[in-house]
Amino acid sequence: MSLLLSPAKLVLLAVHLAVNGDVASLATLAARHSTILRKDLLLRILLTYLPETLPSTQYVNFVQQLEQGVFSDTAGQEVDCSSVANLEEDEAARKVKKLRLLPLALPDLPVEAAEDVLTQFLLHRAYKVDEEAGLLDELPALLLPFLEHSPCIRNLLVSAILPLLRRNCEYYPHDPIPYTLHAFQQLPDRVAVSLLLSQTGKWDADLPSNWKVAVHAVQQWDGPTDVDLGGWSSLGLGDPQIDQLRQSYARAALASAYLIPEASLEALEGAYSVVAKVANLRGLEPVSTLASALAVLPPLAEQIPDEIMTAKTATYMRNDLLIPNNGPKTDDKFWVKARNEILWLRDWGAGDGWSTDAVPRGVFSQVKRDFLELEILKALLSNTRYPLARSIYEDAPDRPLDKKLLQDTIYATALAAYDNASNPNRTRGGLKKCDDIIKAFPKTVRASDSQAKRIEALLQATHSLSDHRLVLKQGEPFTPVVLRVHSDPISIIAKILEQNPKSYTQLHDLLRLGALMVEAGLTTREKGHITAEQETSERASTEHRITAICINAALAEDDFETAYSYVVNRLSPRSSTTVAPRDDFAWRAALQAGKYRRTARTLPPTHLGTASANADVRHLEQRIECLATALRIAPPATLHEIVNAFRRAEEELEAALREEALREDEWDARGDAIRATGIGASAKTATVPGAAFATAAATTQAAPPQRHQRQRDADEDAAPMSLFDLSRATVLSAQRNLSALSGLQRSAGFGRLGGGGRSSGGGGDAGGRSSLDQRPLSAAGSAASAGSGGGGGGDGEDTTKRVRKRDQLREAAMGTLVSGVGWLVGAPPPSSMQSRE
């Protein structure tokens, strides 16, 4: 009757038979309707509806027939179709659509099983039987018939099912591992092995420290070929792999024999049995028994006296083993012997007798000869055996080391001695050793080598620091290694200036120290040799920074004169050098000097020169010069701050000059009053200062008004002549330098006084000042233009000369401005100024 069923009813009937576990009827149905009940469909029906508790032996044959496509004879067998006979076709189709058949493939399916539906079914069925029914022992019956069908099935059986069966079902059924087969496969290797061996006892107590366990294991196990896979499979390895595993096992067994810590007869027997087992496994000549080997040995009693065979002698011998027997480190013979013995341990003295393909068999055979030679060289240099090291590694005809390798080792050892030094003096301690190491190999390390130059510069720089008190951290003295590893070695100079008062005056020495740091490569962190241009730029930047540090230190100690000298002489740009774009120290130091204000603690100048004797005016003029230098060397983005400071200083200078002019007027008024008092005195008082000029009393009445007028004219002439008032400071400087002009004006005043100038108010005023003006040099210099302007009140020729001298001063000021900072503020060139005048 099954031949008359529709496809939908056939599928429903197959599902019904699978649910009931009627595998025989299902096989008959599959044999008759193979075109409808395809292999993949039947496998999915079995996977979804076949009970997991059904023994594997009842359906394995059907799965094999399904895979082969050949079924047994089913001609006389009938299939019960009553479960689907009364169903309508539409209802049967709806039920088929509602079937939820499981997919054969798992998400983590191996790649080699991607196209094999039978392997997919077997793997999925094995996991499902273990998870749903917990029947792990049913899996071998399911998978063993298909062991050779796919490597995936073989790996599952050998690596997971077999260990779990032995652990949970054979060895420790009372304490199984709480993991399903699929979850156990996902565990890391170490975790899985730990779970399998969790019931084997205390691992730390038994195996590592008990040599008897190792001896018994070697005696009972024949190595990799003795692996028990339950008779299901073999290792499947080739002969080379098997031989390699056997060799590794033999080495491990011999190593365990060497590690036996006891000196008893039982331990000797155990070690001997391990050796015999290894010889048997490797196919070597059979080893006789321990008793036979001992019988061949001559008795010790016949060779050694009885007095030696005592416990006291054994104690003495053990004590001798604890006494070091090394020669003196200052004996070259000891070092030569030690070197020869170390090299002998590498190749048993074969030396160059080994062929290029042969491998030495000594204790140090795995260590390269160059490595041993390098370590010996380092030991010789560390113990100051320089002549011996030179004779072996430099003067010998056959040098043990390559020249480049020898150079690198010498440099590394020298720097190691430098790093271990505690005294920055190069004539002592580690620095002396570093210097001696470099000089010990003149043929290998030449003074012209770049690395040798850098080390020499490093030694000189470190030695320079020994002249100063220096503590970088509280309670920790300065050590040379700090300089070499410091991220900013120039900042150490700032620490020197902080801890050593007045050390900023040693600018030349500090600049030399900075140059040595640059030459030693401390200021650049790039590896490799730097170019000459880079070194020149680094030197200029370092020089500016050190100068700036000294300027700030001088200002901190209120030594403005020294700071001013450094700004003018060291930071001013020159035609041959330019400031590096990244130099941010020079202009800031000049700006700080320009902002400095004189206080009671400020150190006085040691000499005045041609500068103003007025301390305030002189200080302001020096500040303006510092700010002008800052303008020249500062980047354009910072000019606004400097110009603001420049204007404030210029305003203060103008106020100081006005105050000085008022004091001059007061001084002149006092002189006039004294002279007027002297005119009405009698002849007895003619000796009073100022009485000699009594003949000019008639002209003194109009002097004060004329003098004030001349002062106002002088103030107008001294007004700023440039856009940023910078030229005025230059004009004042030029006036001080043109001392001949003031002398000429005073000579003209005396000439008018002696040559009938008494009728002129201006001449009388000049004559009165010649005897009374005992004023500071700045007052005389600043009043020179006023005296010259008032010498000829009605003479047009004198006025023309005064204007011409003023023009000369202005032209000089404008020339200085254009050559200096005029380009910064946009001042026109002197030619345009002349045409404008």
Automatic annotation (TrEMBL):
Residue ranges of domain Sec39 in the record: 11-200, 325-667
InterPro entries cross-referenced by the UniProt entry: Sec39_domain (IPR013244)
Leader sequence segment: 1-18
Residue stretches in coiled coil: 639-666
Highest taxon of the lineage: Eukaryota
UniProt entry tagged with the keyword Endoplasmic reticulum: yes
Subcellular location: Endoplasmic reticulum
Keyword Transport: yes
Chain intervals with Basic and acidic residues compositional bias: 798-810
Biased composition (Low complexity): 695-706, 768-786
This protein's GO CC annotations: endoplasmic reticulum
One GO term of the biological process aspect: retrograde vesicle-mediated transport, Golgi to endoplasmic reticulum
Stretches for region Disordered: 695-716, 747-811
Gly residues composition bias: residue spans: 751-767
Pfam families in the record: Sec39
Keywords per UniProt: Coiled coil, Endoplasmic reticulum, Protein transport, Signal, Transport
Full protein name: 547652b6-fe73-4501-979b-51b4ce9bd8dd
Source species taxonomy: Eukaryota, Fungi, Dikarya, Ascomycota, Pezizomycotina
